[in-house]
Specification:
Blueprint (H helix, E strand, L loop, with lengths): L1 H14 L4 H15 L9 H8 L7 H14 L2 H13 L5 H17 L2 H18 L5 H10 L10 H10 L3 H30 L9 H26 L5 H19 L8 H31 L2 H12 L3 H16 L4 H18 L4 H14 L8 H10 L3 H7 L1 H16 L2 H10 L1
Helix pairs in contact: 1-2, 2-13, 3-13, 4-12, 4-13, 5-6, 5-11, 6-7, 6-8, 6-10, 7-8, 7-18, 8-18, 8-19, 9-16, 10-17, 10-20, 10-21, 11-12, 13-16, 14-16, 15-16, 15-17, 15-20, 16-17, 17-20
């Protein structure tokens, strides 16, 4: 009952217009006061501070800075052109190029919004000129951009690792195959839709055109190689790999492509500072929220509550996925993760479910909320770029939303996708 009251209070405060950070901070205070434990409020500052002092979280500012350098440095344009030349002649070729470019972008930025914004203008305009219209490209870009938090480097996985103590490297490795599989499924769905609508194929590029496109995109394509090879090869920690990738992206934007001027750096740095300040504040408040839940033994209550409904681990997983899908319609992804981890992690641990696999399933389920109204941040992003109505783009995206849910359930029940690469890399 206490768990239900806490979440009702949390949702009410959010719907009244409070930010995620304020909501996460106010609810624990009221909870302690209502439970007659006002003396525990003295630890607010310590808990907030300790939540953001982990070394793992240092990777987030560098990944955000890297995303800023890539978007500003014209890297998105080169990636889409490379993808277009490679797969543009397939049925629904530009749709494949959009998904492929988003997949590559995901392996650089780790952010869904960054992928949607960075590739949205380029992909939507190119596909509109080729006869796709704007609504379908906008919906496809919004959905394909959700690969950002799944394919490493993923900010979501960094946050999960900081809160649970799991290895960031293992989480990164676990996200590779599910991300690639979801990307391939989106390509198949795109091909089916384009064939049904009679959208013409683009002419096949010559080998010379492919070689030229590869040469132009070669240096940006080294970003995920640097990050993943450095981490899995033991050369860098996650934080060091993020810093090296950010410096490399800055080098490309400033000295190679010359899209970024020295005078632009203060603006890019300040933009990153604003983003990280918001993220770290939410994480710090969530740390106090987590402390309150643990102090009042809320996770144990959740385990008992779910066990009273069913003891079947597969049914429990389905319930958790459904909860994530519903919350995704109303709450921002990072807020859902920070709220739910202290509750659902003990639940899945109670039936010996892999936390590595759960992290991937959680990321995929939460990402569906980036498409579904009324929140649907990716849909808002691409709708503003394309000029289409938000609900029209969301409706166009429904086949891909169903696909994403089906793949999430498959990943939840088939461990092979998430355990294979972590086992190989050790």
């Amino acid at each position: 009952m206490l768990l239900v009251l806490i979440f009702i209070l949390l949702l009410v405060i959010m719907f009244l217009g409070a930010t995620t950070a304020i909501s996460l901070g106010v609810v624990p205070i009221f909870t302690f006061l209502g439970a007659g434990q006002a003396e525990n409020l003295a630890v607010i500052a310590q808990r907030m501070f300790s939540s953001v002092t982990g070394v793992t979280l240092l990777a987030i500012p560098f990944f955000l800075l890297m995303g800023s350098f890539m978007n500003e440095g014209g890297i998105s344009t080169r990636l889409f052109h490379f993808a277009k030349v490679m797969v543009g002649h397939w049925p629904g070729g530009l749709a494949h190029a959009d998904v492929l470019a988003c997949t590559i972008m995901a392996a650089m930025s780790g952010s869904a919004i960054a992928s949607a914004a960075g590739l949205g203008m380029i992909a939507i305009n190119e596909m509109d000129d080729a006869g796709y219209g704007k609504r379908f490209p906008a919906a496809l870009t919004a959905c394909a951009a959700t690969l950002g938090p799944i394919i490493p480097p993923s900010i979501t996985f960094v946050v999960f690792a900081s809160l649970t103590g799991e290895s960031v490297s293992k989480l990164f490795a676990a996200g590779i195959l599910p991300g690639i599989f979801l990307s391939a499924c989106m390509m198949v769905m795109s091909s089916f839709i384009c064939k049904k609508r009679g959208i013409p194929q683009s002419p096949k590029s010559t080998w010379q055109e492919k070689w030229n496109a590869f040469r132009q995109a070669f240096l940006p394509l080294l970003v995920p190689v640097i990050v993943l090879a450095g981490i899995f090869g033991g050369l860098f920690t996650t934080t060091e790999a993020a810093a090296v990738a950010a410096l490399y992206s800055a080098f490309l934007g400033i000295f190679v492509y010359k899209k970024i001027k020295i005078r632009d750096l203060p603006r890019l740095f300040w933009g990153t500072v604003e983003q990280i300040a918001k993220i770290m504040f939410v994480i710090s408040v969530a740390g106090f929220f987590q402390y309150v839940l643990m102090n009042l033994r809320i996770p144990q209550m959740a385990v008992r509550l779910i066990s009273q409904v069913t003891t079947n681990p597969y049914l429990i997983l389905l319930i958790i996925i459904i909860v994530y899908l519903v919350l995704g319609c109303f709450l921002e992804g990072n807020a859902i993760i920070l709220i739910s981890i202290p509750i659902f992690v003990p639940v899945v641990q109670s039936f010996n479910y892999s936390l590595i696999q759960f992290a991937v399933v959680m990321a995929m389920a939460v990402n569906v909320g980036l498409i579904t109204p009324p929140l649907g941040l990716n849909v808002y992003t691409v709708a503003s770029i394309s000029g289409e109505e938000i609900l029209d783009v969301a409706w166009e995206a429904m086949p891909f939303v169903i696909l994403m849910i089906a793949v999430t359930i498959l990943i939840a029940f088939v461990p092979w996708f998430t355990v294979t690469l972590p086992a190989i890399f050790g």
